[in-house]
Design brief:
This protein is of the alpha/beta class and 831 residues long. 51% of the residues lie in helices and 9% in strands.
Length: 831
Amino acid sequence: MKSLKQHIPETTPNKLKFREFKAMSAIITFYSFKGGVGRSMALANIAVLLGKLKRKVLMVDWDIEAPGLDKYINKYREPSKSSDGLIDLLLNAKNQNPSSINKYIYRVSNIKNCDNLYFLPSGLSSTNFEEYTKKLTSFNWEDFFGKHGGGEFIEKLREDWLKEYDFVLIDSRTGITDSGGVCTIQLPDIIIPVFTANEQSLFGIKHVINSIQKSRQRLAYDRGNLLVFPLLSRHEGNVEFEKSKEWLTKSSEVLREFYDDWIPTKKLTPYNILEKTKLPYIPYFSFGEELAVEVAGTNDPASLGYAYLTSANLINQDFKNIDHIISNNEQKNSATTSKSTLSPKDENKLNLHDITTRQALLTEKLTRLQQQRDLEHRVEEQMRSEKLIADTQEALYLVEQKLLTHQQNNLISKANTLKRNGEYKQALNCWHQIQLANPDSSSAAQEIALLETLQANQTKAVEIIKRLAFRMKDIKPIFKGLATTLRQPDSSPNYSVILEQTEAFLDGKLDAGDFIYWYATENPITDRHGVNIEALARRIQRGEVVLFLGSDVVSTYGDKQHGEHPLVRQLAAQIGYEHFDGSLSSIAEYYQLRPDLGVTTLLDNLRQSLPDAARVINLYQALSKTNMPLILISSGYDNLLESTFQATGKHFVELASIINRSEDYDIGHVVVSYSDHSKPTYVCPEEELSRLRLLESGYSIIYKIRGTCETNKNQDSNFLGRDAMILSESDYFSFARYADRIIPDYLARQFRNRGFLFIGYRPKEWEDRLLVSALLEKRRNAQEPCYVIGNAPQAGEQPKLLESAFWEHRNVRQYHVDFHELDAYFGEAEV
């Protein structure tokens, strides 16, 4: 680079200020000291994300000696008859035959939601290799700058780009070269050195960037110091976890000087930045040239696309709001609409591919280490090899366990689907495979026993129904209900009673009249409610049904003063509002409109009015004693359900969605609270919930759809609670506007293969109907219908026509069931 520096116009060395960033254009060079670090891939993916953020972006393949950026772009760009590119632009400038740069720039138009992305290729194509080589060898950078005004041409090029584009992303030559000097010294405002976790790459970029900074201070043009944003690439943090932390620490110390110019020193450290922006090693993308943000999306926190999105956000916001982007991992913007193009089935294959690839790499590493140990005669080296072998064996064991878990989860998912479809024989085959891999699994043994009973009952029921068809005339009043019951095999003793009594009738041991009378009065399954309560209780306890728990649950158990209407009256009375006749959201809105009251007074008065945690709700007690993780949606503001679970030691995670954005989080982020305090309460993007694997870890999920108002919240939790509360009319308007973002997609995926039951919830007000409608929209692709159970109208009470019409319109089946009956079956049906 020395010869080139001699000809770039210089001025007296001076200490220029660091570039003051504002909402302006920027030229960004992606540089690497060594090849093979994923520099071009990072540029292409980040450029696409900036385009999705409605920025006008130009990509430039300046690596004219070894171009390759086009391989990521060609299938998305407009076809062109010409193969001209940057080399032709430079030669024309050298020969004093300048042409419009637009002649060489192509539009990248075939990427969804990305309409302003452009590409300036090197000029090399698959058909002009020899011609391109002649052009390249005829161009000399020293000659260009020394004799042909190259410095002025490059400066004019820079000015034109800054006027035309929001961001220009340049793919630089690797190492120390003349062409690399142009796009690292004269052209850029920002440089992104891409490096990997080895000393050649790490110290290489450090020395080169320091040299670039010194050279820039001697430029005759108005330049400040470069903003340097190091990007750690191809980082393996899953297998070599300790090594990963070691290199993150080392890299942050070596490169600290480059971060000191632009990160808030009190809030963040270089380690924080590196940890959140590192590009993970994903074996799938080691083959070919794929755009990860298009192939796999940006939602998975462990994905390449997610990491690229963090970098794109930093660039897009001119490296402001860094604490907001990095510390809270803020990812909720329009770029996240880039959903994965993979189906769930293909995404599962991709995960399996990553695990098996990691297994193969570790197996190969282990074999190599063992061979080295066997050839080594020095005792110290043998001991070192033994340590490496033990570490690798441990890592391999963890990967193999992960592979086994992955395979078993797939089998369990398949078995559950088969079971729901009544294909018990095939479901049994799946569980036998699971038991073979894990002979000590008690859950496998229980499920096999259950399926064998169901299969036997199903076989028996089919034969009985065939025989009943010939006696239909004798039992016509009950035939339809009886056949329906028999087609839904159950493992309970009561189902066996149905089979026995039906066989007694068919064998002539019970006449038709007695059988009809018995069925109408003694049938323990299909009772007067039209729903099999015992079977329902069993399904709930197996985690096969999502429960939506309404406020009527508490008031039904003898706590009438804590119903919604008494609560509204109490809130009104606390501020002297006599004869208030409105809903809870109306009185909450009134609090917020009054400058002398506000949200704080509202929440304080609400906490005083809620039932205390010592109150016993039998339904909650029964739910807390189930062994399986449950999914519960609570519309109450109290924490009676949570307190009951904590008292019995049932682990759960409470989730509440943010409905009011702040500097620290956006609408749709989720407040996560662990009952066992294994983690502090925190806020995360809803996409991260899948990564937590809550149900798989044995945690029940309690989703507080209207937020929570605990009486023991601390100062920090209070602020979170306010932004996650749906209480006033304004809150409901916000919920209506952003409902699809607010209700987590992670929950919606759990709805698909489960039943859905509303308990003690009445859609009396428009706000109540809004919550239900939003949930049902999220569940519209589910296989099972929804149900609602609640107390029937009492004597003299008018039927709730609007509520019934609403449930019917939303295809929710209604059953009038006393909650205490459900309690009784819970007690008998312990799982």
